[in-house]
């Protein structure tokens, strides 16, 4: 089964205790597959134990992209987290490990 | 009216490379150079420095930045806008004038103040993060409202060569020169939204040009040791083409621009700034040549009636300790070490975090568990009631040398004071910005 890593790229950003993960298809033709398979439920399951709050998904077909806004994902917040990666910068790599059925 | 205005992005954070903006200013044919130097915590830390010494509180690398940039800016007629005034824009302006005097380069500097609202915020106001009142976080270190482009306009109208601000919304640093040069009104929401998209794309500098993008084999970026910083040619309608100086490292493509456009955007349909509510959902990015990407299509709605205020507070001391293990059974020995620490410190530090670098430190568990690393490091972190209390954590990890599992090496320990940040809102009308001018008009004229 392919990983998201093979189909798309991702950058993680942060606001307080919220992690913002983009998911951008390398090829426009793969966007419908991403939109179908990478649901908020699938991301919640994949990032179980990391994202503790609600996940909102925005669809941006013009950019071939999905945007995931994940609440309660940064161990209380960037500025007071005890995590070694307080910003959750590396969560982009975690998302791309997700496997998707073609 | 001019056909396009060229804005350069010369810093994405206070710690950014110092040589890249110099190259951009020298070779980029810029009209304006913008340096974005304020992350969430930067201004609170600067406020602590200012308390110790009232002449400080601005970007600690301001002198380095200005000494290298000022001769080029003046020679090429480039105006500089930066939030590197941090907690003390007027002291920053004084510092810039002192450098100009030393170099004997005439300069006019405008300092924009008014973002510091520590004395006027309501401690009963709820924070946006938890809903708890601000008073719960006392003693507060700093409270800075995000000013918009309008606060910068009088500084540009004064004819200043350099505009230095404290907290201003990052895209507003770029929107201000567009409003100034093109006469955009504060309710011209579509143009302001397009300018905001351009500012957002440029504000992290190298991140538009392949920085924070590269991944060998699938996202190849050439010349990253010499990454070129970006500029945008913006039309009077706010449409823009992004590019960088020919011959520099890095790459600007639709893919690099897409990552940056969405970076840190919590709602692509309603990106809030003090200037406008911007809708990026219909933005079109198109290749317009090598390292050239055209941006169009942002739409705007009315700006919010309140300004966001970023509030810094003292969040205690964090102690950390690390020690490494290698070879067969490395991970098991690291786990044994972690268990020993948990037994000795768990009661005293209830939120103690114990993890294994090389395995579980970033995501709590290995998402791909097929590989066993040759070497790992145990990391322990916890919050203490005082600096001395927090130091116990690193001391205990270091003591694993003679009391812990076999082969532990490379122990390190740290204690850092944490500055927490929470946000609240303040009515726009309560925040008044002001401009203070400082000037140096050369030794020759003074005689």
Describe the 3D structure.
The complex is a heterodimer of chains A (102) and B (447). With 102 residues, chain A is an alpha+beta fold. Chain A is built from four helices and five strands. In chain A, strands 1, 2, 3, 4 and 5 form a five-stranded antiparallel β-sheet that branches. Chain A starts with a helix and ends in a 6-residue tail after the last helix. The mean pLDDT of chain A is 94. Chain B has twelve helices and 18 strands. Chain B is globular. The mean pLDDT of chain B is 95. Chains A and B meet through strand 2, strand 3 and strand 5 of A and helix 8, strand 15, strand 16 and strand 17 of B.
Give a brief description:
Helices cover 24% and strands 25% of the residues of chain A. Chain A is an alpha+beta fold and 102 residues long. Chain A has a single domain (4-96), classed as Alpha-Beta Plaits (2-Layer Sandwich), CATH 3.30.70.
Query: How much helix is in the residues of chain B?
Result: 25-40%
Output mean pLDDT of chain A. Answer: 94
Strands of the widest sheet of chain B, in order across it, are 11-12-8-7-1-2-3-6-4-18
Spatial extent as radius of gyration of chain A: 13 Å
Poorly predicted regions of chain B are none
Run of helices and strands of chain A: HEEEHHEEH
CA distance, first residue to last residue of chain B: 39 Å
Assembly form of the protein: heterodimer
Which residue ranges of chain A are poorly predicted, with pLDDT under 50 across at least 5 consecutive positions?
A: none
Distance between the termini of chain A: 7 Å
Mean pLDDT of chain B: 95
Q: Output the number of helix runs of chain A.
A: 4
> What share of residues are in beta strands of chain B?
25-35%
Shape of chain B: globular
Query: Which structural class matches the secondary elements of chain A?
Result: alpha+beta
Major sheet attributes of chain A: 5 strands, antiparallel
CATH second-level architecture of chain A: 2-Layer Sandwich
Q: Could you give the count of β-strands of chain A?
A: 5
Instruction: Tell me the total number of β-strands of chain B.
Output: 18
Proportion of helical residues of chain A: 10-25%
Biggest interface goes to: A-B, 36 and 51 residues
